[in-house]
Structures are given as structure tokens and as C-alpha cells.
Amino acid sequence: MTPKTESEWKSKLTPEQFNVLREKGTELPFTGKYDKFFDRGMYRCAACGNVLFTSDTKYDSGCGWPAFFAANEKGIATEEDFSHGMHRIEVMCRKCGGHLGHVFDDGPKAKGGKRYCINSLALSFEKL
């Protein structure tokens, strides 16, 4: 895949998606269409279609964003994020580099303890 320029991303994505995926923005809590959405299927990167999560790993964490206890490890990449005076782990799409959200260690202990806190704007959904 040839990397897209920011101008190409801007023409492909909505302004809100561009802000999240390319400028590392965050949608307001409890406003995303996938926060309280629990249909069976796959969650893909809204920018490039890469498979990121499955509905089997989604849960209601109450945080205001879609939460998953596991990711498709071949679909995501992570790196340390020191923005906003905090230390967090950023989650990105491995294929296009789009910002998805962050992963925290306060998820369900019985499922490994991870909480992938992901912006709805960074996701598309494919029903199974």
C-alpha cells in the first residue's frame, strides 16, 4: 500500500475522522456510535479497512468510548504517548498509522486486564 498524503486522507475522511485518525484527536465521551453498540461482527479501521477488533472482545466499560479487552495484534501497533502531561500507550492502525485511541491496564482481570479505549470515529463495522 502506497502511503497516502495528508491531503489524500483529508479528501477521504470526514473532518471529524481526520481529526481523530490523522491529528490524534478524541471524540467526546458517550457520543460515538459504537459506545453502546453490541452487534456481532468485526471492527475495522475507518481509514483503510484493516481488521482491528471483533465483537467477541467488546464490553461496556462505562468509560464513554468503545472498549475491547483484546485486539487483533496483527492489526494494531502501540507506542508510548506523553502528550497532555500524561503517560499512556497509544493504539494505532498497523496498516495506515491512524490514531485509534489508547490501551489501559484496568480492563477485565479474567480477560487479561486490558482496556482498549477506542474512538468510534476511527472504526467501521462489518456485521457477521
How would you describe what is shown here?
This protein is mainly β. The chain has a single domain (6-127), classed as Metal Binding Protein, Guanine Nucleotide Exchange Factor, Chain A (Beta Complex). The protein has helices spanning 6-12, 15-21; strands spanning 41-45, 51-54, 58-59, 67-68, 76-81, 88-93, 99-104, 115-118, 123-127. The strands form two sheets. A six-stranded antiparallel sheet has the order 3-4-8-7-6-5, with no helix packed on it. A three-stranded antiparallel sheet has the order 2-1-9, with no helix packed on it. Strand 3 and strand 4 (67-68) form a beta hairpin. The chain is globular, with a radius of gyration of 14 Å. The chain starts with 5 loop residues before the first helix and ends with a strand. The mean pLDDT is 96.
Quickly list its features.
three-stranded antiparallel β-sheet, six-stranded antiparallel β-sheet, 11% helix, 128 residues, Metal Binding Protein, Guanine Nucleotide Exchange Factor, Chain A, mainly beta
In a few lines, what is going on in this structure?
The protein has 128 residues and is mostly beta strands. The chain has helices spanning 6-12, 15-21; strands spanning 41-45, 51-54, 58-59, 67-68, 76-81, 88-93, 99-104, 115-118, 123-127. 11% of the residues lie in helices and 31% in strands.
Give me the strand/helix succession: HHEEEEEEEEE
- Biggest sheet, strands in spatial order? 3-4-8-7-6-5
CATH architecture: Beta Complex
How is the CATH topology named? Answer: Metal Binding Protein, Guanine Nucleotide Exchange Factor, Chain A
**What is the percent of helical residues?**
10-25%
Name of the top-level CATH class: Mainly Beta
Radius of gyration, CA atoms, in whole angstroms: 14 Å
Main β-sheet, in a few words? 6 strands, antiparallel
Per DSSP, the total helix count is 2
